[in-house]
Amino acid sequence: MRATTFLIFFGTVLLIYFSVNFYIYSRGLQAFSISPTWRRSYIIVFWLIVSSFIIGEILEHTHSSLTSEWIYRIGAFWLAFMLYFTLTLLLFDVIRLFNYFIHFLPEMNQTLRFRIGLFTIAFVSLIVLAGHINALNTRVNKISLTIHKKVKGNREMKILMASDIHLGALIGENREKSLVDIINNQKPDLVLLCGDLVDGDVASALRNNLGRHIQEIKTPMGVYAIPGNHEYIGGIQKTLPYLESININILRDKTLILSNGVQLVGCDDRDNRRMGDENGRKSLKELMTGLDKTFPVIVMNHQPFNLDEAVNEGVDLHLSGHTHHGQLWPFNYITKAVYELSWGFLKKGNTNIYVSSGFGSWGPPVRLGNTPEVVVFSLKFDDPLQ
Questions:
Q1: Mean pLDDT of 67-75
Q2: Which helix (H) or strand (E) holds 265?
Q3: How many of the other CB atoms lie within 10 Å of CB of 154?
C-alpha cells in the first residue's frame, strides 16, 4: 500500500513537472524559432536543464558525487526559473486575451517574439538572482518574553532557535559557518535546532564533512535538535547516526530538565509513520506526563499543526519551522491557508508560539517574499511566588 501511494504521488509530481515545462517550452519555441540554429539550440538546452533536476535527484540518492551535486544544483535553480517563467507567461497570456477583444498591441512578427523572449529570460533571471541574494542574508530576529514561572538561579535566559538548515548539496560549508558565526556573536545560553538539519540523503553532508563546525558550538546549556520531515526523507536510520556523530543531542519524543529547571520537550516529526516508522510518535500529552508545570516548559515541534494542543497542555514556549513561509512568492499564500501560523509570533492563552521562516532552503536556494532567519529569545522568568 505504501509503495502504491508513493508511486501515485511520484507519478503525479512528474506529470505536473513536465506539463508545466512543456507549457514553457512551447511558448519559448515560438520566440526562439527565428532561425534553425536558435531553434535547435533552444530545444537542446531547454530539455537538458529541465531533466537536470530529476537526474540530479536520482544521482544524489544513488551515486552522490561532485558531478551529481552540480547537476542537482542546476536543476534546483531551474525550479525557481520554472515558477517565474510560468507566472510571467500566464501574465502575457492574460494580456493577449485582452488584446483579442481590444486590439491594443502591435502585430507580432518573429523578430518581436524573439526580443520578447530575450527580455523574459533577462527579467526572470533578475528575479531569481535577487531571490538568491536574499536567501544568503540571514536576519537575526530578537524577541523578549516574560514567562510567569519559577526557575533555579538566574531568572534570565537567552535561547537561539534555528530551523530548516538543510545541509547538503545546496547548503554547504559557507552557510554552515555563517550560522555558527551568528550563534557565536549572539552568545546564547541554549541552542535549539527545530528540524530539517539535513536536506534529505546525508551522502552530500558526509562527503563534504558538513556539520563539523556546528559541533564546535559551545553554550552553557547545550545544543539540542529534533527530527524534521527531511530527516525521514533521507532515511532516519542513516540520518540519526550522522547527527549524533557531530555531537547534536537529538530529542526524538524525549523530555529533559535543564540545569535551571526549564523543561525541554522534543517531539518526533509527524511524518515518521508515513516514512516507515510503525511506532508512530507520542502525543504532546504523553510527553508532558509527569512534568512539573510550575517550571517553564519549552516544546520543539517541527511542523506547526494543532497548536491548540500546546495551549491545552500549558506549554510556555512552542517552537516550529517547516513552512519556510512559502519560500517562493506566491506560495506564502498557500502556507498561510494551510497553517494557523505560517511565520512569526502568536500568543494563545498563556502559550507563546513561534514559527520560523527557517535558515536554509529546500530546492532552489532562492527566497522571495520572506527572509531566512534565526530567532533569539530573551526570556525573563517572573514567578510572583518567588
A1: 90
A2: strand 263-266
A3: 9
Residue 136 burial (CB < 10 Å; 0-12/13-18/19+)? middle
- Preceding amide of 330 cis, omega within 30: yes
Instruction: Work out the average pLDDT over 335-356.
Output: 95
Query: Going by DSSP bridges, is the β-strand pair 351-355/344-348 parallel, antiparallel, or unpaired?
Result: antiparallel
Q: Do strands 373-381 and 190-194 pair parallel, antiparallel, or not at all (unpaired)?
A: unpaired
Kindly give, in sequence order, each residue whose CB lies less than 8 Å from that of residue 321, ignoring residues fewer than 6 positions away.
163, 164, 194, 195, 196, 228, 302, 355, 356, 358
Residue 84 clears pLDDT 90, i.e. is over it: yes
Average pLDDT over residues 20-44: 95
Q: Which residues contact 76 (CB under 8 A, 6 or more apart)?
A: 53, 56, 169, 170, 363, 364, 365
Length of the chain measured in residues: 386
Enumerate the domain spans of the chain. Answer: 2-134, 138-381
Dihedral of CA 129/130/131/134: which sign? positive
Band (274; pLDDT cuts 50, 70, 90): low
CA distance 226 to 238: 15
Q: Pseudo-torsion of CA 84, 87, 88, 89, nearest 10°? A: 120
Helix (H) or strand (E) holding 255: strand 254-257
CB 247, CB 206: distance < 8 Å: no
What phi and psi, each to the nearest 5 degrees, are found at residue 271?
-85, 5
Question: Which of 346, 320, 324 lies closest to 335, judged by CA?
Answer: 324
Phi first, then psi: give them for residue 256, nearest 5 degrees.
-140, 160
**Residue 308: C-alpha distances to residues 121, 217, 352 (Å):** 46, 34, 11
| pTM assigned to the model | 0.90
Q: Looking at 166-175, 322-331, 363-372, which range is the least confident one? A: 166-175
CATH of 138-381, one of 3.60.21.10, 1.10.287.130, 3.40.50.150, 1.10.240.10: 3.60.21.10
